[in-house]
UniProtKB/TrEMBL annotation:
Species of the source: Tuber borchii (White truffle)
Domain Enoyl reductase (ER): 17-298
Keywords recorded for this protein, A-Z: NADP, Oxidoreductase
UniProt key word Endoplasmic reticulum: no
PROSITE patterns (alphabetical): QOR_ZETA_CRYSTAL
Taxonomy, superkingdom: Eukaryota
UniProt name for this protein: Probable quinone oxidoreductase
CC annotations in GO: cytosol
GO molecular function, one term: NADPH binding
High-level lineage: Eukaryota, Fungi, Dikarya, Ascomycota, Pezizomycotina
Amino acid sequence: MSSLPKTQRSVQINAHGGLDVIKVVTDAPVPIPEDNQVLVKNAFAGLNFIDTYARTGLYLAPSFPFTLGREAEGKIAAVGKSIQDFKVGDKVAYLGVGALAEYTALDPLHVAHVPSAIPEGVAAAGILQGLTALSFARESYEIKKGDYVLIHAAAGGFGLWLVQVAKALGAHIIATASSDAKLAIAQEHGAEFLINYSTQDWIAEVKKITKDAGGGVAAVFDGVGKDTFDGDLEAVRRKGTVVSLGNASGAVPPFAISRLGSKNIKLVRPQLFGYIAEREEFETYAKEVFDWIIEGKVK
Ligand SMILES: NC(=O)c1ccc[n+]([C@@H]2O[C@H](COP(=O)([O-])OP(=O)(O)OC[C@H]3O[C@@H](n4cnc5c(N)ncnc54)[C@H](OP(=O)(O)O)[C@@H]3O)[C@@H](O)[C@H]2O)c1
């Protein structure tokens, strides 16, 4: 521990706001892990839409300065007295607050050993979105063979993971994105039907595609939020499921719950952490994410 530096570079905000609130500081203290924490020397960090929510204040920071970043990969640099499952030098990837820094101290609940077969940096790029895609495709709505599933922003980080998971589960994937170039990427990863929601009437297109399958999708996975939520209620079929999982265009405003009744729609608003709150749950899904990467089932 004595060989560790006292200060480090980190990406911080001191207030919520636009891009100008983001500062790279060089004199942030290197945290000292508590007895039940590990200290990770980060080598790679992933960027996620949640970093935008943390900057703008849609998700409020508990205090300032607040270090951004929610996932990273690196090596254990120090362990607290009660830690048994990790030792200095172990290669790990994790979910945790403050990943955009050289060192991050955290509870090991969401820290996983990275198998040696995974190339450098890949675990950091995939763990949060991979865990989300796999757990949501099983637990928010269990995707089944032959289902018509609508995935918004399908060429994004989470979207591309979910396209590949849904494809492997045998679903017909209807992908939306804001450009034809993005749709081509979704197609390369397994999307069967492509809709440019900047230029096309996406609700009408979904109804056309699903006209022989109940006139709507079995499930919609929506990380766009405000701009698409109303349309989701139209695009889903009777007894279908709307998984409202994010707010890229803004938070979904309050609405009358009775609107679900006309088609007996199920509405779910999941958070990844609700599916990996127990260590065993996290380990199961993390192993699956790593297996998918190693087996080349996900690009
Ligand atoms: N609930 C959870 O636990 C959980 C966990 C992980 C991720 N998520 C959610 O999953 C979604 C995707 O996250 P991600 O990290 O993978 O990000 P991302 O997909 O790389 O980015 C979000 C995408 O949303 C689309 N979008 C539509 N309207 C937008 C707007 N006004 N501003 C910006 N983007 C807009 C864009 O795609 P187009 O250009 O194609 O429109 C953009 O690429 C987010 O909503 C995130 O909050 C939720």
